[in-house]
Each structure stands twice: as structure tokens, then as C-alpha cells.
Amino acid sequence: MKKILNYINGELVEPASGQYLDNFDPSRGTVYSKIPQSEFQDVEMATKAAEKAFPEWSAKTAKERSKIMLKVADLIEENLEKLAHAESLDNGKPYKLAKAVDIPRARDNFAFFATAILHDEAPFYNMGTSGFNYTLRQPIGVVGCISPWNLPLYLFSWKIAPALASGNCVVAKPSEVTPMTAFLLSEICIEAGMPAGVLNIVHGLGPGAGQAIIDHPKIKAISFTGGTKTGEHIARIAGPKFKKLSLELGGKNPNIIFADCDFDKAVKTSVTSSFANQGQICLCGSRIFVERSIYDKFKTAFVERVKGLKVGPPEENDSRMGALVSKDHLEKVMGYIELAKEEGGSIIHGGNKVELEGEYSNGYFLEPTVIEGLKYDCRTNQEEIFGPVVTLTPFDTEEEVLMMANSTQYGLASTVWTENLNKAHRVAGLVESGIVWINCWLVRDLRTLFGGMKSSGVGREGGYEALHFFTEAKNICFQYDH
Ligand code: NDP
Predict the structure, then answer these.
(1) 363-419: per-residue pLDDT in tens?
(2) Do 462 and 391 lie in a common domain?
(3) Is 482 inside any structural domain?
(4) How much is the pLDDT for 238?
(5) Which residue among 39, 87, 176, 248 is the active-site one?
(6) Is residue 481 part of a domain?
(7) Is residue 429 part of a domain?
């Protein structure tokens, strides 16, 4: 059985405790590899290695750091199929999706930040004959990056790449649920010639290895993506220690569909935004609000299209949905389907486990599920489910849909569907979310800001915002001596 190892000080090493956790293949429900159960001692070793590597790494020119990171990007590209197979096996997502989205994006994350540092600028404030000020951005030192299981390598690299590019050394922990591609990344970093200690990857549980990272006094900044409850906990620990914090948390995203939309595109994209990656993307729309005059037509077309989504083995080319990531998560999502029924909802499609045959008979497969008839403020419509479950709700006015869309504690992403330019931008300005897509979904430009408001997070990732998060800004003032 394959054994994952920690990546500390440039080497692949066993956890100090010698203990390993089981790693499950969610499509078969079987253990297929072992994960180091790292604790404080491993994080301590990783932090020491990072501290030691920092002076040399931070003193490199942007061009020198860029070169090593671009090598990592190239190796990710060369290993596209291997990484996509590993991601699909570890997470349960369709191989096709991992190959088209997850791995290319991980490659792009490294390439983007590796080249962005070559073009960064800093403000300069001229005070005329008396002097001037400029902003000096310096790397922080050792930083911690903690990521979730839904887009494993994609989100892991989205943090690590800007941290490294800015000149920091990193102690990172991927989700224990999906650690495999982070392990393969350590092998790639060794091959790319990443200096020892610059990037350290410690595997293990949140309350063990994760907690040790957020607690560690030498780790000066934490970039975290995960659930809102975990984010709250991290803020409570890291806040009083005055660590810099970037928190990308949960969502309950609305799709707002007006009667004057491009109907076919709105239906097609809403199906994708509901069920891509089994609905396990923080940006998936889970509450679909449809203007009453087209509600029945939309519902019929939407459900018709959902019926065409094949739930099947992740490796099969025509599987549009694979397995949910774990047994616990499947049970959680199914619990919400039961709750929706108790709250008076009607399941108009799905709602059940999918029983596949043969080797996949113990996999965690669930039908794409569509629910209607719920109040906008019931628990099903307020709490994050993070699975292939969406609700349909009619609305009459712009004011009403904004009230419903903005009623949750979350504010991550939203979509607005209308051909009326004024309405599109008016609603986009009023909806409470960090990202708004007009007549599209998940169209990404890595230069743009990414993140949520309210309980969906603190701070923004993406572009220079991410690079700057991983620096301390210093104002330097000079006065001429006349
Ligand atoms: P969790 O919050 O459970 O875990 C996220 C990471 O934090 C994991 O690596 C986890 O480790 C670790 N962790 C857990 N407890 C601690 C702790 N006490 N100290 C330090 N680290 C800890 O989230 P999930 O992995 O379940 O991911 C799903 C969530 O992520 C959803 O809420 C989703 O909305 C959100 N998300 C947000 C995104 C955004 O950009 N806003 C993007 C993608 C997902 P372990 O897994 O080993 O327990």
C-alpha cells in the first residue's frame, strides 16, 4: 500500500510519531494508502527548516525565484495525467474534470505568481523639494497554508505559490481527506530543485498538525481555506497572536434568474454551477431564485437536463458526477435532504444514494438533487450543504430576490442572469457577495480579487492582493538635507 510521506527540509520523511492514518478511495469505499499522522513535533521540524531556509530564499532575486517556480509549473504540466488520475482517485471527482480543470489550474497558479513578481510595482509619493516616500514590501518569514479537500492541488497551490513567490518559506498542510497530490507535489519540488526547507508539507489531522501550525509562534501569517466554523476557531487562536490572517470560508451562493435572461444559457450554466465536482465547489450556486413568470418553464428544463447527468465511476469518460469525498460527508449531505423534507420541501429530482455495481458498490455516490417548496429562511436554505443539492425558489420583484439572496450569513459568490444591462449591474452592486458573475459562472482571471464577505471570509486572494498578503508593507520616508 502506498505510503505518503511528509516533505520537510527538502526530504521525504516519516512522521515523528511513526503513526499513519487511512486514506480512502471514495468511489470504492476502500483504504488505498496511508497518511502520516503528524503532530507538533513534525510542524516544529518543518518550521525550523523553513526558518533556516528563509534568509537565502528571501534574498534571491524575483527572477531566481521565478525560475524555480516555473520549473515546478512545467513539471506539473508534464505530469498532468498522473496527477489527474491521483486527484480523481483521492477525491472521487471525474478524471476528466481533474484533467481539464484541477491540474491545469495548479500549474497556472505556479506560473501566474512566478511571473507576477517580475512585474510588481510599489507606490512612490513625491513631496517635491522636501523629500519622498516609498513602500517597501518585504516577505514575512515563515507562513502557514492550510487547504480543504474539494479542489485539493488547485487550492493548495493557490496559497503556496504566492507565498513562495513573495519570498516566504512555507509550512503547509493539505486536507487529510485528500493528501495525495500534495505529496506528489513534494516529489515535483525536489525534482525542480526547490531549495531545502523553502516549502514544507506536513500531513495529518486538523486538530493535530493543523492546530500546531496555527499555534506556532514562529509562523507569522496563516492563509486558510475551509469551513466557516474552522475559520472561526483559527481566528480565535491566531488573532491574539497578531498573525496576519486570510480566511476563505463557506458559502450559500444564490443564482438570480430574471425572466429576460438568455434562457438556454441560464439553464445549462445553472446545472453546471449546481453539480460540478458533485456540488463541492465553494462557488457552486445552491439557491436558485427564478422570476415567477418563467419558474415552471425553468424548472422543467432544469430537471430535464439534470436527468442527463451520469453519476458513475470517476475514471469513466462519460461520468459527469463521481463520488462524494467521504462517507461522513455523504451522510451529512443526506441528512440535509431529510431536513429539507421535514421543512416541507418536495424533492423534484434525486434525493437518493446511487448504488453502482461491482468494485464501486461501496462508493459514496449520490443523485443530483433538486428541491422546491421551501421558505427562503429555512435551515436548508440558510446552511451550507456543500454537495449536489440545490433548491428552486420563485420571486416576483428585484427587491424581494435581493432580500432572499442576501438573507444568509454567507457572501461568497453569486450569479445574475438578465439581458438588461442596467438591471444586471444594479443587482450585481446590491447582492452581498465578494464575486458576482453576470450571465456566466466560474469564469476566472487570476489577476482578479477572490474571496467572500460576511461569514465567507476575511481578506481577498488572487492577483497582487495574494502576493501582498504575504508581505509586510513598510513606508520609507526620506527628507532632503537642504
Ligand atoms: P475544514 O474547515 O474542515 O478543513 C479545512 C482544512 O483545515 C483542512 O486541511 C483541515 O484538516 C484543517 N483544519 C481542521 N481543523 C483545524 C484546526 N483546528 N487547526 C488548523 N487546521 C484545521 O473544511 P473542509 O476540508 O471540510 O472543506 C470544505 C469547506 O471549505 C466548505 O465550507 C467550503 O465552502 C470551504 N471552501 C471555501 C472556499 C473559498 O474559497 N471560500 C474554497 C473551497 C472550499 P483536516 O481535513 O485534516 O481535518
Answers:
(1) 999 999 999 999 999 999 999 999 999 999 999 999 999 999 999 999 999 999 999
(2) no
(3) no
(4) 95
(5) 248
(6) no
(7) yes
pLDDT at residue 197, rounded to an integer: 98
Q: Please, what's the b/e burial string for 443-481 (b: 16 or more CB within 10 A of its CB; e: otherwise)?
A: eeebeeebbbebbbbbbbbbbbbbbbbbbeeeeeeeeee
> Taking the CA of residue 390 as centre, how many other CA atoms within 13 Å lie in the half-sphere pointing to its CB?
30
Q: What total of structural domains would you count in the chain?
A: 2
Low-confidence residues in the chain, pLDDT < 70: none
Residues forming a β-bridge with 370: 349, 390
264 and 243 both lie in a single domain: no
List Cα–Cα distances, 284 to 27, 201, 420, 441, 457, in angstroms: 22, 28, 24, 9, 16
Same domain, 279 and 425: yes
Q: Please confirm, yes or no, whether 378 is among the known catalytic residues.
A: no
Q: What is the DSSP string of 430-464?
A: HS--SEEEES-SS---TTS-B--SGGGEES-BSHH
Asked whether residue 220 falls in the same domain as residue 259, the answer is no
Q: What's the confidence (pLDDT) of residue 1?
A: 87
Probe residue for ligand 1, chosen from 146, 214, 444 as the CB with the greatest number of ligand atoms within 8 Å? 146
Q: Which atom of ligand 1 is nearest to the CA of 230?
A: 2
Same domain, 439 and 468: no
Tens of pLDDT, residue by residue over 88-135, are 999 999 999 999 999 999 999 999 999 999 999 999 999 999 999 999
> Using an 8 Å Cβ cutoff, are 396 and 293 in contact?
no
Indicate which CATH number applies to the domain containing 195: 3.40.605.10
Report the predicted TM-score, pTM, of the whole model to 2 decimal places: 0.96
**Is 248 among the catalytic positions?**
yes
Pair 142, 260 in one domain: no
- Domain range for 135 is 2-249+456-476
Question: CATH number of the domain that 352 lies in?
Answer: 3.40.309.10
Ligand 1 centroid to Cα of residue 308, in Å, is 31
Please tell me whether residues 274 and 409 are part of one structural domain.
yes
Distance (Å, rounded) from C-alpha 23 to C-alpha 205?
12
pLDDT at 330: 98
Query: How much distance in Å is there from the Cα of 127 to the middle of ligand 1?
Result: 47
The reported pLDDT for the residue numbered 456 is 98
**For residue 100, is it within any domain?**
yes
Q: What is the pLDDT of residue 61?
A: 98
Per-residue pLDDT of 65-95, as tens digits, reads: 999 999 999 999 999 999 999 999 999 999 9
Residues 49 and 152 in one domain: yes
